[in-house]
Amino acid sequence: MDLSGFLTSAAKPQLAVIPAAAPILQALLVVLPAILVAVGSLIVTMFKPSTMKRVLHLLWTQKVAVLLIIAAVVGLIYLYGVLFPPVIDEVAAASDIGSSDWLLWRGGPTRRGFVPGSEEPGHGPILWTFSRDGIKDFYASPAIVGDRVYVTSARWEVFKKDGAIYSIEPETGKLVWKFKSDGYRATFSSPAVSGKYLVVGEGLHYTRDARVFCIDIEASEKAREGVKLWDFRTGSHVESSPCIADGKVFIGAGDDGMHCFQLEPGEDGGAKRLWHLEGKDYPDCETSPVYHEGKVYFGLGNGGNAIVCVSADDGKELWRLKTPCPVFGSPSIAGGKLYIGMGYGDFINTAEDVAAKRRDDLKTKGLSDQQIEEAVRDIKPGGEVWCVDLEAPGKPKWTFKTGRVILGAVAVADGKAYFGSRDEYFYCVSADTGTLVRKWNAHAPILTSPAVADEHVYVITETGQLYGLDKSDLSMVWDVSLGAVSMSSPSVARGHVYVGTKGNGLLCLGRPGREKEPPIWRGALGGPGRSGWTDGSTITARGVYGWGYAGEPEEGASERPQVTMDAPGAYLDEVFYVGFNAENASGLARLSFGDKLGGKPSQDWFAPSKNPIHLSAAGTGNSVFFVDGRPGDADRALHRLDPKTGRELSMYPVASDASGEFVITRDCLFVAATGKGLVCLDNEFPEPGKELWQAEVGPCVGAPLVGDDVIVVAVQSPPGVVAVDRCSGQVRWQSPLPSAPQTGPVLAAEKVWVGHAGGVSAARLADGKEPVTVACGNVSGTLVCDSDRLACVTSDGQLVVLNPATGDESARFADAVVGLAPLLAGDAMLYCAKGSIQRYDFAAAKAERWAKITASWPGNIVTPLVMVDSHVFFATDKRGFVCMKPKKG
C-alpha cells in the first residue's frame, strides 16, 4: 500500500518525528556547512605526511602507556558486560508452537482478525505498550498464535530507516525475541505463521529491492533471538502480507508481481522460488493473496485494476476480472464466494488528492488540459465492494457502493460482510445479496480492516480511536483512544485487542466482557427513539400467549377490579413497573418474575396516585419515576419512589397545562412540567425553586431527546424544534416545522426527526440546519428508530419505514394499528396489525403472522410492545398486562 505521501512529509526536516525538535534541527542545518568545512580541514591536516609521521613517532615513544590504556579500555568494556548484561525479559517458553496457525493476513480466508474461541473485550483501557530500539511505528497487523504475538515495526526518519520482527508475550508485552539482522528495513507487511515457520515481507513503498524473510520460530525461541531460515530479494517493495498454504508461500511484491516460494528451504539452504508472475503483467501487486482449493486470488492496484485467479501449482492465470478502479482491499473467501474492496485513494491521499497529483504529473509531461482532464476523468470519490461467485466468476454476483475507497479487507461472518470506508462509515451487508443490513457513523475515515468476533466488531479510525460495537446492531459498547493515528488493523484474542500505531508503539487494550453499568430505563419504550427492544434478543418465528395480569383483588374482595393500562411497561433488572388504572384506585405496580419470564408475575407493591397513569415510568437501581394525570387534570405530580418498597421519596408538581413527558439520565431528569417549557432536575428532586434550570421554549410535545451536549424538544407554538444547552438550558438553535408536531424528537443518522400532520421532518443535530421533510402521511403515536431505520404509523393505519440517512421509503404496510409504534429488533420487526402481531424480516422483505390477537382473546392491544429475552409484553383491554412467549417447534 502506497504510504509515500505520509513518508514524504515525515521525512522532511521541518516535520521530524518529534515536532518539538524541529527548531533545533533547522538551526543545525543552518550551521551544518560551516561544521563540515571545519571537520574537513582537520581531516586534511591530520593526513598530511608530516603530521602522520609526528603522530606515529609520539605513539612509539609512549608505546607502554598506550598499550596499558588500550588494555584498560578493553577490560572496562568486558567488565561492563558482566556487571550490566543486556536486559532480557523473563518470559515463559512458548507452550503451543505448531498447535495453531495464522496462515495469512487477518488470520484466515474470511479475514476476521479473531482467534476462534477467544474471550472478547468489551471494556478497559490500554493495558501495555511495546516498542524497542527507539522504533515506535507499527503499520503491520499483529499475528496471534498461542501465547505469542508476532508483528513488524517501521522507522522512517531522516537518518534511520529500519525495522524489526518481534515475538511478544501477549499478556505482559514482554519481548521474547526479535529479528533485526541483515539490515532489516522499515516494514508494512504483516507476518503469517505456519507451525515453526514465520514468513513476512520487508520494506515500505520507497524500497525497490525488498526481501521476503522466513524465520525459524523454534530456533528463535531457544536462542531468544530471531533465526533466519531463508530470504529472497525482489525487484520492488513487499508491502503485501504472505499467504501460506500447501507447503507454499504466496506474496505480492508491488511492481515485481506475484511470487511463490517453497516454505521449507531449498537444497542449498536458501529460498526456493517455485514461480513468479512478472510486474509488467501484474502491476501494483500489493494486496495479500488468499488460497482456496488449489487456486490463489489477489487484486491489482494502480495500472492493474483487476481481480486475478491463478493456479497455486504453477501460477498459470485462470481468469481475470477487470474492475473500474484500483483494487487495494485484500480478497476474502467464504461460502464459495470472494469479497473484495476497491476505489481511488490510499492511506494518505483522498481521490481528489490522487487526481490532483495525476494532473501535475501529466502537466509536466506536456499534455494539454483536455488530455489531462480525459486522463483523470474516472479518478473520483467512491468505493465498491464486489462479491464474485467462484463457480461463475465472469461478473460480480453483486456490488455495493460506498462514498469513498475501501482499503481494508472485507470480513465475513454469519452470513454478513463487514467493512469500513474512507467515507467515515462502517458497513454490514448481507453476504449473499449485498443488501445493506446496517451502517455506523464513525465520524472519521476507516482505512483498515475490522476484527469480527462472535459478539462484537472492533473498528479503528484513522484518528486512532478504537471502537467495540455490538455485532447485532452496531451500537457502540466500548471506545478508547490509542493516543496516536493508526494504519494497523486490530487483532483480537485472549480477551484483548492488539493493534499498532504511529508513534505510540504496539498496544494491547481491553478486558473480557462488558463493563457492567447500573441498570436504567430512560422513559417510554426505553427512551426517545427506542422501540422496546431491551436486550438484543431475537424475534422468534412464532409467539404464543403466556399469561395476562390485571392486578390483585382488594383485601376481602372475591374478584379483581376492572383495570386498564394506557402506557407500556418499564423494564428494569428482571422487574416491570406498570401503571394500573381502576375505577377507585390508580397507581404504579412492581411486578417480579425471578428467573422465569414465562410464568405469571408476583406483585411486590402498589403505589397509589391521585390521578390515573397515562405515561410510562422510568427508573434506575435507586429510584423509580412516574407522572400521574394528563393535561387538564389537577394536582398532578412527578413521583420518585424507592424501587424496593414503593415508598414515596419525593414529588415535584406538574402543571395542569403541561404534557408531563419526561426522560431521565443517570444524574438528571428533564420534564415538561409547565406549559411554558422544560425543567431540568437533579434525580433526587430538590424542592421547587431549586431546579437546575428552566427553559421557557413553549409547550412541549413528547419526551425530550438527550444529546451529548444539548436537550432537544418539539414545541407546539410556534411549531418547531428547539435545542437547549444541556448544562444551562440556554437556547442553542431552533428549526421550524411545517405544522404542529405530533411526536417528540428522535435521533437517527445524526438528524433530529419529528412527526407532524404532513409526515416527518428532520434537521441536523449539530446546528438545526439542512431541514428536510418526508411526506409520508399524518403521523400518529410515537416515532421509533435504530441505526438504519426510522418508523412511524400514520392516522390511517399505514406503517412506514424510512432510511433516515436518505429519507427514502424502504417498506410500507397498510394494516397497522393506529397509535402503536413497531418494535425494531435488528434484522426483524414486530408490528401490531388488525387481528395479529406481524413479524417482518428486513433481509428477506417478507411479513408473516407472528401471533393471532383478536378482540375476544386476549383483547385489543392498547400499548406498544416491549421485548425481553424474546418474550413480548403489552397491554390489552381485556387481559391487562400480557406476555407472549416464544412458540416451541
In short:
The chain is mainly beta. 11% of the residues lie in helices and 39% in strands.
Count every helix, treating DSSP H or I runs of 4 or more residues as helices: 7
Uncertain stretches:
4-39, 84-88
Which secondary-structure class do the elements indicate?
mainly beta
Shape: elongated
Domains (count): 2
Strand count, sense and barrel status of the largest sheet are:
5 strands, antiparallel
The CATH topology of the largest domain is given as Methylamine Dehydrogenase, Chain H
The number of E-state strands comes to 68
Can you tell me about this structure?
The protein has 889 residues and is mostly beta strands. The chain contains 7 helices and 68 strands. Strand 12 (243-245) and strand 13 form a beta hairpin. Helix 6 packs antiparallel against helix 7. The longest helix is centred in the first third of the chain and has 25 residues, at 22-46. The two termini are 52 Å apart.
Fold topology:
Blueprint: H1 4-11, H2 22-46, H3 49-61, H4 63-83, E1 121-130, E2 143-145, E3 148-152, E4 155-156, E5 161-162, E6 165-168, E7 175-179, E8 192-194, E9 197-200, E10 211-216, H5 217-223, E11 228-233, E12 243-245, E13 248-252, E14 258-262, E15 273-277, E16 290-292, E17 295-300, E18 306-311, E19 317-322, E20 332-334, E21 337-343, H6 351-364, H7 369-375, E22 383-389, E23 398-402, E24 411-413, E25 416-420, E26 425-430, E27 436-441, E28 451-452, E29 456-460, E30 465-470, E31 476-481, E32 491-493, E33 496-500, E34 506-514, E35 520-521, E36 543-549, E37 563-564, E38 570-571, E39 575-582, E40 586-592, E41 602-609, E42 618-620, E43 624-627, E44 636-641, E45 648-654, E46 662-664, E47 668-674, E48 677-682, E49 693-695, E50 700-706, E51 710-715, E52 720-725, E53 731-736, E54 746-748, E55 751-756, E56 759-764, E57 772-774, E58 779-785, E59 790-794, E60 799-802, E61 809-813, E62 823-825, E63 828-833, E64 836-841, E65 846-852, E66 866-868, E67 871-876, E68 880-886
Antiparallel strand pairs: 1-34, 2-3, 3-6, 4-5, 6-7, 8-9, 9-10, 10-11, 12-13, 13-14, 14-15, 16-17, 17-18, 18-19, 20-21, 21-22, 22-23, 24-25, 25-26, 26-27, 28-29, 29-30, 30-31, 32-33, 33-34, 35-42, 36-68, 37-39, 38-39, 39-40, 40-41, 42-43, 43-44, 44-45, 46-47, 47-48, 48-49, 50-51, 51-52, 52-53, ...
